[in-house]
UniProtKB/TrEMBL annotation, chains A, B:
Molecular function terms, GO-annotated: diphthine methyl ester synthase activity
DNA damage keyword on record: no
EC class (word): transferase
Occurrences of domain Tetrapyrrole methylase (ranges): 1-238
Enzyme Commission number: 2.1.1.314
One example of a Gene Ontology biological process annotation: protein histidyl modification to diphthamide
Pfam families according to UniProt: TP_methylase
Binding site for S-adenosyl-L-methionine: 9, 84, 87, 112-113, 163, 222, 251
Protein name from the UniProt record: diphthine methyl ester synthase
Length: 291, 291
């Protein structure tokens, strides 16, 4: 059996009992190497699971799937992924490959940011399509996310914006010299995300995002107990918070849609940034009728 | 500490290690009584968790939250819910009440249908807002879901349709006589759901749903190993399958949006109903360019 097991969002204890049993019964256990986005290191997972983990970067999962799947028709092999196996990064390729090889497969689901974002108080029902925001460079500013946010916005729906991470990046010099030396991982911060969103708004002028009157909610480490951060306010307010307000990465951002219900606004209000105009804007611009 | 713990989708082993630890350390553990939508009974949960569970129906969670929260400032109290605490049914009311009472709260996330639906092969990114479909009666056919599906459809987005369940229903006679005797739980089947969708289409005539050329995917017991069912085809095809094809409840349905990518269509094709025109329709109507 080939198991694809979601680890959930934070640390070694977010795995399900079913997932843990599958790991313990597996002869090989691969860990997809986005580990930097979990709150813990590989060694701590290994100790807790009682198993050695084989690091498999995204490239390996995509191009060397036959090596991962080797003998999975006779033994149990597990692939561990952060969040859920069908979350923001899907694992359909390797499952299709297992299917072609007639290897039985079982997916062990878990929380991912795609559903845990409900912790911010907005109803999952009212979210439209999800978008990703990548780091801009001087010459590359992909902006298709803006059209998606606009589509959601016109209908009043919320938009979950997933922020870029860069892992295993090489400097131009190291790349040119063929040296496999990687830069430290980079995670997009909330102020950077807001700045990029507003930069595209000022170019496209669709009237979709307004620094002073578009509400947004920043989250990080959802489900991570004391490490969880949820901060809401206008885009301007969020861009002006000191970075420590947002805690450790990974960060995500929600653009609040105009169908905002007053119960959603009231729940989220507990997370309002200091001196935020959250309630004023929810009332005057979003037409929330508070009790 | 007041814990709100997601149980995931299927059985006693879908709980996370963190959730299980919280249960074991709690002096009282409530189980929200939608248990019929889990695949297992309360007794099996109790045996596995090593704890007695206090049944709390939805009404009790909403109106008697102070009883549930009693002493949670001094002891650990847990409330167990199916799926994720912020899934289709949210638990913001009781968390707000805990907040008002200054009781520290921790949510333990888990998979819910809102993210596990990715198992059907459609990208979660491409889903629009989620809708609920309730059982029609002769005199009550609420159809606002149609507008939401239409909004998603115009943009090419997929729609997750959650199907009604009726638990703790009383017959008119028992209700009139004040007898607290409840009917057996009812779960909407896929053919019923398709029939209701097409009934509203034929009344509203928005051209959003077509029995012969709208693709849909039925799922049940996602993550439930051998009990999981995923069946795809046109609406007509899904309505004509014998009910046993869909396995045990709870069922959900996805209306496929026109932005369907050929990789999504190829992944889902393995779940096509017998003799389904899935690929033909994906190619001719949805313009998927298969390799």
């Amino acid at each position: 059996m080939f198991y694809v097991i979601g680890l959930g969002l934070c640390d070694e204890k977010d795995i399900t009992v079913r997932g843990l049993e599958a790991i313990k019964g597996s002869t090989r256990v691969y860990l997809e190497a986005y580990t930097s986005i979990l709150m813990v290191q590989k060694e701590r997972l290994e100790e807790f699971y009682g198993k050695e983990l084989i690091l498999a970067d995204r490239d390996m999962v995509e191009t060397q799937s036959d090596e991962i799947l080797k003998d999975a028709d006779k033994e149990d092999i597990s692939l561990l992924v952060v969040g859920d196996p069908f979350g923001a990064t899907t694992h359909t390729d390797i499952i299709l490959r297992a299917r072609a090889l007639k290897i039985p497969t079982r997916v062990v689901h878990n929380a991912s940011i795609m559903n845990a974002i409900g912790a911010c108080g907005l109803q999952l029902y009212n979210f439209g399509q999800t978008v990703s925001l990548v780091f801009f460079t001087d010459t590359w500013k992909p902006d298709s996310f803006y059209d998606r946010i606009a589509e959601n916005s016109v209908l009043g729906m919320h938009t979950l914006v997933l922020l870029d991470i860069k892992v295993k990046e090489q400097s131009e010099e190291n790349l040119a010299r063929g040296r496999k030396i990687y830069e430290p991982p980079r995670f997009m911060s909330i102020p950077t995300a807001v700045s990029q969103l507003c930069e595209i708004e000022s170019m496209r002028k669709g009237g979709i995002l307004s620094p002073a009157s578009t509400l947004a909610i920043a989250v990080s480490r959802v489900g991570g107990g004391d490490e969880q951060r949820i901060v809401c306010g206008t885009l301007d307010e969020l861009s002006q918070q000191p970075e420590e307000v947002y805690g450790e990465p990974l960060h995500s951002l929600v653009i609040v849609g105009k169908r905002l219900h007053h119960l959603e606004a009231e729940y989220a209000e507990a997370f309002a940034a200091r001196d935020s105009k959250w309630r004023d804007v929810a009332s005057s611009i979003y037409k929330c009728e508070f009790d």
